């Protein structure tokens, strides 16, 4: 039997100086939460025969890692919204995490967009270092990277994930796969039981089990990677600390890992990689990171990655400002470069 997550609780509040502003924020939160719940409940009815298989890239030749430098894998796609579509449904249907979908399309209302709007499906990503066999989970971008060797070549597969919510954050660190189980039962930990005292002592395998169909336990006994009976939570900070995948994705990942496989959990919103000789920068939320610290991190990573071209400071600043999670080219040929790294 497995418990799903650690007991991590921490109260938080958001003070508001004006009562009217507080009421508006509460109403907005209640409306969006209710709408999200209704939309989420409708997913099985709207798409009864479809299960998202979200891992990228789809072609083996695109998944091959040619050298030890991080690179851009996959490519973003464009999509035109149809009548009645929204980003919640589309994230599930296209196998993209919800937060990354919203981050890549900041001008689109995720709940009630207009038909005919053109959006970006964020299916390109820079592989974080080190490029060694194992699992890397980057909390900042809500993605899991699996690297493995096959016939003397290294390959990567990328999965969108859901992670711990505020107060029950997924802990960064270095772990190993400790155990695996198909059709696991779930023993609710005390923290969850305090919130939902109606839960039975053990939840058996099946549709009511939040672990889904497969469990990959880590060397921290209470932490694991698993499926879910609520796929709309993938791509969101919504779990009690564990890492959840779409049902079809956890099945795929489960059969590719073995006990003892290294697992590294990081929280890095800034990544750099090389593609076709050019330097690319991918930036996710920079909350809590000062501008100068972010710039310095870019140049520090650039030195680690190594690039023959010059870095375009203006392109770097614009990519940091947007923080939309899409890899952007930030280098130019040295003979036309008009910017230099900060000293």
Automatic annotation (TrEMBL):
GO cellular component terms listed in the entry, alphabetical order: extracellular region
GO BP term (any one): peptidoglycan-protein cross-linking
Cross-referenced CDD domains: LysM (cd00118), YkuD_like (cd16913)
Gene3D superfamilies documented for this protein: L,D-transpeptidase catalytic domain-like, LysM domain
Active-site feature positions: 226, 242
Recorded superkingdom: Bacteria
Pfam families to which the protein is assigned, alphabetical: YkuD (PF03734)
Domain L,D-TPase catalytic: 133-266
Cited PROSITE patterns: LD_TPASE
Single GO MF descriptor: peptidoglycan L,D-transpeptidase activity
Database matches in InterPro entries: LD-transpeptidase, LD_TPept_cat_dom, LysM, LysM_dom_sf, Transpep_catalytic_dom
Pathway: Cell wall biogenesis; peptidoglycan biosynthesis
Keyword Transcription regulation among UniProt keywords: no
Entry keyword set: Cell shape, Cell wall biogenesis/degradation, Glycosyltransferase, Hydrolase, Membrane, Peptidoglycan synthesis, Transferase, Transmembrane, Transmembrane helix
Transmembrane segments: 26-47
Family note: Belongs to the YkuD family.
Descriptive protein name: Peptidoglycan L,D-transpeptidase
Species this protein is from: Geoalkalibacter subterraneus
Highest classification ranks of the organism: Bacteria, Pseudomonadati, Thermodesulfobacteriota, Desulfuromonadia, Desulfuromonadales
């Amino acid at each position: 039997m497995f418990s799903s997550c650690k007991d991590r609780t921490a109260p938080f509040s958001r003070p508001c100086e004006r009562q009217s502003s507080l009421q508006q924020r509460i109403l907005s939160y209640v409306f969006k939460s209710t709408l999200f719940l209704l939309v989420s409940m409708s997913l099985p009815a709207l798409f009864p025969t479809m299960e998202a298989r979200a891992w990228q890239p789809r072609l083996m030749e695109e998944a091959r890692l040619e050298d030890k430098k991080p690179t851009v894998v996959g490519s973003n796609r464009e999509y035109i919204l149809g009548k009645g579509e929204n980003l919640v449904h589309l994230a599930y249907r296209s196998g993209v995490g919800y937060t990354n979908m919203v981050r890549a399309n900041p001008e689109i209302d995720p709940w009630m967009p207009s038909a005919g709007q053109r959006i970006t499906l964020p299916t390109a990503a820079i592989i974080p270092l080190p490029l060694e066999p194992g699992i890397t989970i980057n909390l900042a971008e809500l993605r899991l990277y699996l690297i493995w060797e096959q016939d003397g070549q290294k390959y990567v597969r990328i999965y969108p994930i859901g992670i711990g919510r505020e107060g029950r954050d997924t802990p960064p660190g270095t772990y190993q796969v400790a155990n695996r189980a198909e059709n696991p039962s779930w023993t609710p930990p005390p923290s969850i039981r305090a919130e939902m005292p109606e839960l039975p002592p053990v939840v058996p395998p099946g549709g009511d089990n939040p672990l889904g169909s497969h469990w990959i336990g880590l060397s921290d006994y209470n932490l694991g990677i698993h499926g879910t009976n609520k796929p709309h939570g993938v791509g969101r900070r919504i779990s009690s600390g564990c890492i959840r995948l779409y049902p079809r994705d956890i099945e795929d990942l489960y059969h590719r890992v073995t006990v003892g496989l290294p697992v590294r959990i990081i929280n890095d919103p800034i990544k750099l990689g090389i593609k076709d000789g050019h330097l690319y920068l991918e930036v996710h939320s920079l909350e809590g990171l000062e501008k100068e610290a972010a710039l310095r991190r870019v140049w520090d990573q650039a030195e680690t990655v190594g690039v023959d071209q010059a870095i375009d400071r203006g392109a770097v600043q614009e990519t940091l400002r947007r923080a939309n999670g899409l890899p952007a080219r930030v280098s130019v040929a040295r003979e036309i470069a008009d910017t230099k790294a900060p000293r």
